[in-house]
Specification:
There is one protein chain. Helix 3 (32-45) packs across helix 4 (72-83). This protein has helices at 2-23, 26-29, 32-45, 72-83, 103-122, 149-160, and strands at 54-59, 62-69, 90-93, 96-97, 132-136, 139-146, 167-174. A hairpin with a 2-residue loop joins strand 5 (132-136) and strand 6. It has two domains: 27-96, 2-Layer Sandwich (Histidine-containing Protein, Chain: A), CATH 3.30.1340; 103-174, Histidine-containing Protein, Chain: A, CATH 3.30.1340. The chain is an alpha/beta fold and 177 residues long.
């Protein structure tokens, strides 16, 4: 009798869980944190790719690369490295190509980044926690997964309004469903 009850419970659990398993895609099965870590490792291993200037985020298997590299070749290699990672279902390569800057410019960039972050936090329509802000040579890169296109547009508008900003790269991506 005990075996029959155990078998019945096990059968019920399997029957209930099967639809949930069947609905998951490869991107959902593999944990985004694992994909993210694997992409970062692939960037470190990639030849001639400055991995420290690249921000990697993953949402449901979609990998977003934002930040700065110095050449188009570096951007292309970074995208290729990310695309080669198991579990990366799509790569949105939004890296900005911008030459390296001097120490003085880096200090100015830090101030600009702080001002842009403050402007994003002060706006009630922007969820600033979703947006990464990086600056190089006065050019601001806004990256991250956001929930609506309106947030992207408003964030770009706010960044452009900050004193010292020479340009804005929209590296944000609306979260896939």
């Amino acid at each position: 009798m005990m075996r029959f009850t155990s078998a019945l419970v096990a059968t019920a659990i399997v029957a209930i869980s099967m639809p949930a398993i069947a609905q998951k895609t490869a991107g959902n099965v593999i944990d985004d944190n694992t994909v993210n870590a694997s992409v970062k490792a692939a960037l470190i291993e990639a030849k001639d790719v400055p991995s420290t200037g690249i921000v990697v985020e993953t949402y449901k298997g979609v990998v977003l690369l934002s930040g700065f590299v110095e050449t188009q070749a570096q951007k292309d290699k970074a995208g290729k490295a990310a695309a080669g990672v198991s579990g990366a279902t799509k790569v949105h390569n939004a890296l900005a190509v911008q030459p390296s800057t001097s120490m003085g410019a880096k200090l100015d960039d830090t101030v600009i980044t702080s001002k842009v972050k403050a402007a994003l936090m002060d706006d009630k329509d922007v969820k600033s926690g979703q947006i990464n802000v990086e600056t190089r040579g006065g050019v601001v890169s806004l990256g991250g997964f956001v929930t609506r296109d309106a947030i992207k547009k408003r964030a770009v508008e706010l960044a452009k309004g900050v004193n010292g900003v020479k340009g804005v790269v929209d590296a944000m991506y609306v979260k896939p469903n």
